[in-house]
Specification:
The complex is a heterodimer of chains A (229) and B (267). Chain A is built from 7 helices and 10 strands. With 229 residues, chain A is α/β, with parallel strands linked by helices. Chain A has a domain of 64 residues. Chain B folds into 2 domains: 143 residues, no CATH class; 97 residues, Alpha-Beta Plaits. The mean pLDDT of chain B is 85. In chain B, helix 1 crosses helix 8, helix 6 packs antiparallel against helix 8 and helix 8 packs antiparallel against helix 9. The two termini of chain B are 33 Å apart. The longest helix of chain B has 43 residues. Classes of the chains: A alpha/beta (229), B alpha+beta (267).
């Protein structure tokens, strides 16, 4: 589904990613782990087509993402749901409006928007809070809104950029349960995290990044993060 | 932008009013050649032919002594004393000439003056040349002012919409990353610019219309005899259509410039 072939990304003199190679298959749950600045977010931005690689190629459903422009790029992005590290919720819109935004963008019929938004908000336990604004929510709730928004349009891939950061263990467990459910429905989930407990509990594939390079890419039953990560 | 559109409307109305006045003057006999009492019909016909060969006249009308008396009587019908004193004998016959353009009058006058049959030539050279100067000046000044106002209005829209774009930048980026098309992201801003433009055009038109209504009594007196008033509704609607088009163009273009700067910075 997603393939990185010798991908490097440089910002001037700074090398964010170097010779990255991996392939993620449909329906997989993959953790991207590494310290801050290791290149996790850059990988997400490359998948979204926000950045183009300096070298190498990225394939999404066997098509080179560099060739996506205009409407094709929009179509690619519609296949990818994202939980941004900073959530990117729109402050002047309610929970309901934020979550339904991907459907509005697709010009989905209003009845379907209402129906799907209700279902997704109930799934993340926020239906009662649908009329509140992001500033009126707790951090855990904001993160759940972000997940609901990323998932509502049934994307083929869900990218979650450290969605459990700053969350208490209980809320983290809840969020992981939601992400697992989404993955079980067939959505490919790629999650960037620092949290080794989550990684160990899920026993999924782990790609370990350090200074823009892949240190390891394997599936283990127990994963211990290196101390410097 | 409303003020700019209002000034534009005033300039348009002044220019078209002056133009209509000039056209009115052009449509009337603008030059009168008084003929000597000895002039015979054949000689008058020859003179008419000579004037027509200049190719610069629309019409030539012969006014006989009797017709001149009739005109005179009509003009002074309120003064019976004068009516009694004047007879057809003392009034000269004349040729009333309408030129194709008021600028031809001096040249036609020169041709006529050279003829021995003509005793005197009368035309309002000063009024015509002044009106021509005013119209030309108004056109040049109007063009410069309208261009200046167009540019400032455009800059105005660009600044206002750019501020809106800057305020909603994060929202636009988020939408773009969710797969929103450029049209979907730009649409509300372009619509906003168009609404600004159209609203300014309508308000300016209403203000201009009120000003015209207010000044109509004065203008009717000032332009006595020139049939400009009441200003036809179709003309006012045409001005409104022009202003709306201008509002659409300025609002649309201004907002397109503003949002394109955002689009250039994102993929």
């Amino acid at each position: 589904m997603i393939k990185f072939e010798n991908v490097s990304k440089k910002f001037g003199e700074i090398t964010a990613l170097e010779e990255i190679n991996f392939e993620i298959k449909e329906g997989e749950f993959v953790f991207l782990i590494g310290s801050s600045g290791s290149g996790k977010t850059t990988i997400f931005r490359l998948i979204l087509g926000e950045y183009l690689p300096t070298e190498g190629k990225i394939f999404f459903e066997e098509k080179d993402t560099a060739s996506f422009k205009g409407k094709a790029l929009c179509e690619l992005r519609r296949k990818v749901g994202v939980v941004f590290q900073d959530f990117k919720l729109l402050a002047n819109r309610t929970v309901f409006e934020n979550v339904s935004l991907p459907l509005q963008i697709r010009k989905t019929a209003p009845e379907e928007v209402a129906e799907k938004t209700e279902a997704v908000l109930k799934m993340v336990g926020l239906w009662e809070r649908k009329d509140l604004f992001p500033a009126q929510l707790a951090t855990g709730e904001i993160q759940r809104v972000a997940i609901a928004r990323a998932f509502i349009a049934d994307p083929a891939v869900l990218l979650a950029d450290e969605p459990t950061g700053n969350l208490d263990p209980e809320t983290t467990k809840e969020l992981m349960k939601i992400l697992k459910e989404i993955n079980e429905k067939g959505t490919t989930v790629i999650m960037a995290t620092h949290n080794s407990e989550i990684v160990n509990e899920l026993k999924a594939r782990v790609i370990l990044l350090k200074e823009g390079k892949i240190l390891s890419d394997e599936k283990k039953s127990k994963y211990l993060l290196p101390k410097d990560v | 932008m409303t003020l700019a559109f209002f000034i534009m409307m005033v300039i348009i109305m002044l220019a078209s009013g002056a133009e209509a006045t000039l056209k009115f003057l052009e449509s009337r006999p603008q030059l009168t050649a008084f003929l000597s009492d000895e002039a015979k019909p054949q000689q008058i016909e020859l003179l008419k032919a000579k004037i027509e060969t200049t190719g610069k006249v629309n019409s030539i009308k012969f006014i006989s002594k009797d017709e001149a008396l009739e005109i005179y009587r009509n003009e002074i019908k309120d003064n019976p004393l004068l009516l009694e004193m004047v007879t057809a004998k003392i009034l000269p016959a004349s040729l009333e000439i309408s030129a194709k353009s008021l600028s031809y009058l001096p040249e036609i006058s020169q041709v006529i003056k050279e003829d021995p049959l003509v005793e005197d030539v009368l035309f309002q050279e000063d009024v015509v040349s002044t009106l021509n100067t005013i119209i030309n000046g108004l056109r040049k000044f109007g063009l410069i002012l309208v261009s200046f106002l167009f540019t400032t209005s455009l800059i105005n829209v660009v600044i206002v919409i750019s501020m809106q774009v800057a305020r909603h930048r994060r929202e636009m980026e988020t939408m773009s990353l969710m797969g929103a098309t450029k049209g979907y992201i730009r649409g509300p801003f372009i619509l906003q610019g168009v609404i600004y433009g159209v609203t300014a055009a309508v308000i300016a038109w209403l203000a201009g219309w009120l000003l015209l209504l207010y000044s109509t009594p004065f203008l009717v007196k000032f332009l006595a005899g020139v049939p400009l008033f009441p200003v036809p509704l179709i003309y006012l609607l045409a001005v409104l259509a022009g202003l709306l088009l201008l509002g659409l163009v300025i609002g649309g273009l201004g907002s397109i410039f503003s949002v394109r700067r955002f689009s250039k910075s994102s993929r």
